[in-house]
Fold:
Amino acid sequence: MPSPLRVAVVCSSNQNRSMEAHSILSKRGFSVRSFGTGTHVKLPGPAPDKPNVYDFRTTYGQMYNDLLKKDKELYTQNGILHMLDRNKRIKPRPERFQNCKDPFDLILTCEERVYDQVVEDLNSREQETCQPVHVINVDIQDNDEEATLGAFLICELCQCIQQTEDMENELDELLQEFEEKSGRAFLHTVCFY
Structure:
């Protein structure tokens, strides 16, 4: 039995897409952590140009209570309170990828900008062990429904990768199959720790 893959899922604010995938992957027994790459955590506000902005040190519980006070009806209706409630059951607060020095075998990002930030961060670090990490981008729109579909796709991908005999050589072919099946294009690169 191969040792379980160490998986990281990354979006911008570590709220919706990465947390949905974190939830599903951990239920399936993966060793998974989730992150955001933004400088701040942003959640939708009363208008598109008025997001709620938090520091990464703010807990999901604190965000929940803050929005509950601001406008319970709005944030119940748009699903933000429900999402924060789920998040705080998974871990206490969002985490920023750039602050994590733990190694992973596989890092999945949810949009191209986040993928670029992850790759840039990994390439700027001093290489110590030369252990490879595969970074794969799966474009997922930042809404409820797409986050769920994207999380299942990520989970299926991780399950297939876990079953490969030789990840280094089989991954490109596997991603090509997934692209054809899902109609999505995946970006893929290898970085080293």
Remarks:
- The chain has a mean pLDDT of 96.
- Residues 144-163 form the longest helix (20 residues).
- Strands lie at 6-11, 31-36, 41-43, 52-54, 106-109, 132-138, 186-192.
- The chain has two domains: 6-38+96-192, 41-90.
